[in-house]
């Protein structure tokens, strides 16, 4: 009788062995093994029929189960009813299955109750599910718990599902029981629960203990994902691939993505596409993106759009961006807006930015605000900047800072700059540092300057170097011709800014090199700055060349500096031409120096100009 109950378990799950085409229509080409199996089943069925006709209740039950598995409901029912009348609990369970298939759920539930009371775990599970479908959760829990406590795997899973739906803490215990017994959906859901709650800091627990629990949670979640994935659960394979990719195990991640994608998981196909793209194989990436996009994955459609946009195939790109929108992906509208903006289709760009922004896309909201600001609609831009910033857009927070600073509302601007800086925005950190320097809080300014400079902001590196430069004591003068190689931290920051093209930093590095006696290095940085348009660089390069005896070349650079408005360079040129006897040209540059200043230069240039005027009128 226990064997009968085990067979009944298969039936109540709804997973029946259906007759194949070969069973429906005999095929002489079938191999001998299949013929032998069919012959064996026929002999067994004949034996059971004879035993059933002789009144053997167990034979009636097994024969009814066999016919039920075959789909012969009419043939199975009398045998199952007869066995049930003899008290066979497996037959009662299977009779309930048969009646449920015929569309008589209430009558089926009556027989399941009979079997469940007699100790059938499968019947208790079926009855529990029926009661839940009827909305009677207390009764459902009672019968499902009966099944689960008897070791019924599906009963444990169904009980866990019911408890989880109610928010009962005992759900995970039964989900674990089902998973340990090989239920793949239970294994997947247990992994998801562990994955989502892997870092809970329990009350009274230390942060260190919480981190340990998080690592353990991730490890256990991965194990359950593996179990479910190995049993063919495609979403488990997707999540396992995600974990492995995050850990850097790209090869194994790709295998699980591939497994999941082949089973029809569009997100896995999309993820596999990104993995292939990052590996330098955009062609195969496009194949998987196409497959995912055709299955309705908006992210894959966006990826295809971006791929075609990079190739200059804007019409195809636009088609895929629209497909992404149709799939409910707001990035499609945002990317389409970017495409229109690049093509100068401003009105259409605004339209798509608005669509994405209204859907909650924060970067679209920021981009829309920038677009409105560019056309002079400040009032229309501010709400979108605010919406984007509140949604977490760092750029929008920085832009709000600019907006309020432009209105003279420095305190409000600073609050937005600080918010953006806290999220790692280097330009915002620079603005906070400038405000702190203005307030005299050099320590806080230095902290923000270091953040901005470390993030690659050249202006911040220059200003940080200047702050550090002002603190250092003066160096003792080096002996003539001796090159001092030691560099301070401030000089390193000057050099970092200089290598990023910061002209004032380049001039300063040149000055520090000259102070060390490294004329070649000084000349290199002065020339770099001068060629980039720095008038101070051109002036200093001229001084360096003049000291080296190359006054004609020095005059070339001084001319460039003076033309750019450098008063000292103009005075130097006036002196050069005066020494050469070119008094008129000297007077012209002296006049220029007077007008350019500063005061000390203007005073000296005025005296030189008057002297040259007297010489010219003599």
Structural overview:
The protein starts with a helix and ends with a helix. It has 618 residues and is mainly α. It has 36 helices and no strands. Mean pLDDT is 87; it is low at 1-32, 199-214 and 477-483. The chain has helices at 2-12, 21-24, 32-53, 57-70, 73-85, 89-102, 105-117, 121-133, 137-149, 153-166, 171-180, 184-196, 207-230, 234-247, 250-262, 266-278, 282-294, 298-310, 314-326, 330-342, 346-358, 362-374, 378-390, 394-406, 410-422, 426-439, 442-454, 458-471, 489-499, 503-516, 519-531, 535-547, 551-563, 567-580, 583-596, 599-617. 45% of the residues are buried.
**Counting H and I runs of at least 4 residues, what is the number of helices?**
36
- Our estimate of the beta-strand percent is under 5%
Termini Cα gap:
137 Å
Mean pLDDT: 87
Unreliable residue runs: 1-32, 199-214, 477-483
- Quaternary organisation: single chain
Number of strands: 0
Q: Please tell me what the overall shape is.
A: rod-shaped
Percentage of residues assigned to helices: over 70%
Report the structural category: mainly alpha
Radius of gyration (Å)? 41 Å
List keywords for this structure.
single chain; mainly alpha; rod-shaped; disordered N terminus
Summarize the structure.
The protein has 618 residues and is mainly α. The chain has helices at residues 2-12, 21-24, 32-53, 57-70, 73-85, 89-102, 105-117, 121-133, 137-149, 153-166, 171-180, 184-196, 207-230, 234-247, 250-262, 266-278, 282-294, 298-310, 314-326, 330-342, 346-358, 362-374, 378-390, 394-406, 410-422, 426-439, 442-454, 458-471, 489-499, 503-516, 519-531, 535-547, 551-563, 567-580, 583-596, 599-617.
């Amino acid at each position: 009788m226990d064997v009968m109950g085990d067979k009944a378990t298969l039936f109540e799950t709804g997973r029946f062995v259906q007759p194949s085409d070969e069973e429906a229509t005999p095929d002489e080409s079938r191999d001998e093994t299949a013929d032998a199996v069919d012959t064996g089943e026929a002999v067994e069925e004949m034996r059971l029929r004879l035993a059933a006709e002789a009144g053997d209740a167990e034979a009636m039950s097994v024969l009814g189960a066999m016919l039920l598995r075959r789909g012969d409901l009419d043939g199975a029912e009398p045998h199952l009813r007869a066995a049930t009348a003899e008290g066979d609990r497996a037959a009662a369970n299977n009779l309930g299955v048969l009646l449920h298939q015929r569309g008589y759920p209430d009558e089926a539930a009556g027989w399941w109750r009979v079997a469940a009371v007699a100790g059938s775990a499968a019947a208790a599970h079926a009855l529990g599910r029926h009661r839940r479908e009827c909305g009677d959760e207390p009764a459902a829990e009672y019968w499902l718990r009966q099944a689960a406590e008897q070791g019924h795997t599906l009963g444990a899973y169904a009980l866990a599902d019911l408890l989880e739906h109610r928010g009962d803490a005992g759900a995970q215990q039964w989900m674990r029981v089902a998973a340990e017994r090989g239920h793949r959906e239970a294994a997947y859901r247990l992994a998801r629960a562990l994955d989502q709650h892997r870092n809970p800091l329990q009350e009274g627990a230390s942060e260190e203990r919480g981190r340990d629990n998080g690592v353990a949670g991730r490890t256990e979640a991965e194990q359950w994902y593996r179990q479910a994935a190995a049993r063919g659960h495609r979403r488990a394979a997707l999540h396992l691939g995600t974990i492995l990719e995050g850990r850097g195990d790209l090869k194994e991640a790709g295998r699980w993505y591939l497994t999941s994608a082949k089973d029809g998981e569009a997100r896995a196909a999309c993820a596999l596409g990104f993995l292939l793209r990052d590996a330098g194989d955009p062609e195969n990436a496009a194949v998987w993106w196409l497959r995912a996009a055709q299955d309705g994955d908006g992210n894959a459609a966006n990826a295809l759009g971006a791929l075609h946009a990079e190739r200059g195939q804007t019409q195809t790109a636009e088609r895929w961006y629209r497909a992404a929108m149709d799939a409910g992906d707001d990035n499609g509208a945002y990317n389409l807006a970017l495409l229109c903006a690049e093509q100068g289709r401003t009105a259409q760009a605004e339209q798509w930015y608005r669509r994405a922004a209204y859907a909650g896309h924060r970067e679209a909201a920021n981009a829309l605000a920038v677009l409105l600001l560019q056309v002079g609609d400040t009032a229309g831009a501010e709400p979108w900047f605010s919406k984007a910033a509140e949604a977490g857009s760092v750029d929008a927070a920085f832009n709000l800072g600019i907006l309020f600073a432009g209105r003279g509302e420095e305190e409000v601007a600073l609050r937005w700059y600080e918010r953006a800086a806290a999220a790692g925005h280097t330009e915002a950190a620079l603005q906070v540092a400038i405000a702190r320097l203005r307030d005299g809080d050099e320590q806080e300014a230095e902290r923000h300057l270091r953040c901005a400079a470390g993030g690659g902001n050249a202006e911040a590196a220059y200003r940080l170097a200047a702050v550090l430069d002002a603190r250092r004591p003066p160096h003792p003068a080096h002996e003539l011709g001796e090159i001092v190689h030691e560099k301070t931290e401030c000089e390193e920051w000057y050099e970092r800014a200089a290598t990023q093209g910061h002209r004032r930093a380049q001039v300063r590095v040149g000055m520090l090199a000259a102070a060390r006696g490294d004329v070649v290095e000084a000349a290199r940085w002065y020339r770099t700055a001068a060629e980039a348009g720095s008038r101070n660089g051109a002036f200093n390069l001229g001084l360096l060349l003049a000291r080296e005896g190359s006054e004609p070349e020095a005059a070339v650079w001084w001319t460039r500096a003076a033309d750019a408005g450098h008063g000292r360079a103009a005075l130097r040129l006036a002196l050069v031409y005066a020494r050469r006897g070119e008094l008129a040209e000297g007077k012209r540059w002296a006049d220029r120096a007077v007008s350019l200043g500063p005061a000390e230069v203007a005073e000296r240039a005025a005296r030189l100009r008057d002297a040259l005027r007297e010489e010219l009128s003599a």
